[in-house]
Design brief:
Structural class: alpha+beta
Strand content: 25-35%
Number of domains: 1
Strand order of the largest sheet: 1-2-3-8-6-7
Distance between the termini: 15 Å
Shape: globular
CATH topology: 60s Ribosomal Protein L30, Chain: A
Radius of gyration: 14 Å
Order of helices and strands: EEEEEHEHEE
CATH class: Alpha Beta
Helix content: 10-25%
CATH superfamily: RutC-like
Number of helices: 2
Largest sheet: 6 strands, mixed
Number of strands: 8
Low-confidence stretches: none
Length: about 120
């Protein structure tokens, strides 16, 4: 059974998609960008602050669906500049201390709203 997941504790979708979709014990979280759900605007700061906000958004969606970071099996990290990889990775490592998920990381030409990082997440129960 397919279930659409939505929480006000993460930013609203900026297009025609869902924050997340759960099907057969697998949760697919749309790419999260560093928008503060309370203000609806991109957080100020650099890659560290933006990555922190992305993880707050991911955790809010995971929680709404009854999952935790321990359930995450795959992430895809999209970055505007791979020169920021070490800083992003330091934040990432604080969230995935055990049972680290598989991950792909790519530098892309441009991200929505000019952000520096976007992370897509798949979790399983």
């Amino acid at each position: 059974m397919r279930k659409i997941i939505h929480t006000d504790k993460a930013p609203k979708a900026v297009g025609p998609y869902s924050q997340a979709v759960e099907i057969n014990g697998t949760l697919y979280i749309s790419g999260q960008i560093p928008i503060d759900p309370d203000t609806g605007i991109v957080v100020e700061g650099g890659i560290v602050e933006q990555t922190e906000q992305v993880f707050r958004n991911i955790q809010a969606i995971l929680s709404e669906a009854g999952y935790t970071l321990e359930n995450v099996v795959k992430t895809t990290v999209l970055m505007q500049d791979l020169n920021d990889f070490a800083s992003m990775n330091a934040v990432y490592a604080r969230y995935y201390t055990t049972r680290q998920p598989a991950r792909s990381t790519f530098q892309v030409a441009k991200l929505p709203l000019g952000v520096q990082v976007e992370i897509e997440t798949v979790a399983m129960k």
